[in-house]
Amino acid sequence: MNRKLSCILVGALSLSAQAAWAGGLALPTRGVRALSLAGAFVAGAEEANALWYNPSRLDQTSVAFELGAVETSATFTPPDGTSVSNSATPLLNPTLGAIFRVNDTLSLALGAYAPYSGQLAFPEDGPQRYSLTANDHTTLLVLHVAAAVRLGRLRLGAGIQNVMAHVKQRSVLSSYTGLFGAPDDPTLDTLSNLDLNDPFTLSANAGASFEAGPFTFGLALQLPYTVSGDAKFQVRLGESVFLDPVVVEGDSARFELPFPLMVRAGVLWRATPDLKIELAANFENWSVQEELVVDPTGRIRLRNVPGIGDYQLGPLVIPRQMQDTWSFHLGSDFAVWEGLHLRGGGFYETAGFTDATTNVSQLDGTKLGLALGASYQLGNFRFDLAASRIFQVTRDVTNSDVRQLNPTNPEQALVVGNGRYEAGYWVGGIGIAWLLDV
Length: 438
Fold this sequence. Notes:
The protein is mainly β. It has three helices and 23 strands. Helices cover about 5% and strands about 55% of the residues.
């Protein structure tokens, strides 16, 4: 009895942490001008978006503000044919940046921005509930200061970032013990809610670019970081009479979510005075999330456990088994006439999870993205518009290793990862820039 009830609560903790910030929730493009080029924005990065993509490209004095939004369509159909679809409302993703060109050698910049990420919400009683019910209020904001120097044809830049994270996850686990009911008995479902605020996590990035005639070569590095802290953790125990006498004391757990090292490279070709084409590649070290550790030690205690009394929960290690991802981007910028530019491009990205580990909390897969955009400059002001359609390869999973989280009776936990996963994204954004050096 001791082991069974303690595992119920520890299991709820682990399921919540599993859902947090899967690799597929952060798209490989962000920022309106970068979006219009499908993320081919390393050697030719400029203005506020250069803070993230390549700080060596910070140059002219400017102030820019952008808003982007991601609409995520996602459907999971288990083998019995009972489909559930994402109902989350898209959140706006802001970008605000200011650059001051001190002189011909030095530029300084300050900015705030968020990743372009999908939001997910599914029914609490749906067939996907043992993986995720919602993460649609999880947000991340990066505050960034940077500097760039120009040394002839060589440019160098670097910045310091503070990552502000708010992770909110809801998930369900089964507390089926084998004594009564069934593994998917809804009266044995326990809803867990995890809420983490981490307002201070330091990271940094750096970049370089080199002009060689009609070509510009760019390279950028984003250092890894880890979101961590004491999360507010609450559970709503199932309706089974087995759980009636149990009282949960304490509502926090310590856990960490590592984010990857990223390396970007690109080459920009000025084919004509009016046409620029960039080819870029991006590597993300997502295998850093091989496992997560959830530690409620000394923070959560069970009271009135039948036959036991009180019990303190200990740490748990959760496998993630993510794999590194690569993406490749191609974009072009064409000056139609003075002040008006049209842009377009496409990208391809590999998946961060295999079929065996895919579930709705890890809704990631091979992606193909297409993008279009335009800008018009009027005096010192420029207006930007971009839209992108991202297709994700449909997965028909028949070899899933994903089971209900049920440490009380793991040998009878049902496989819940098999089925069809369909997902796609519409991404759009608008922006305005005030160009003071024009």
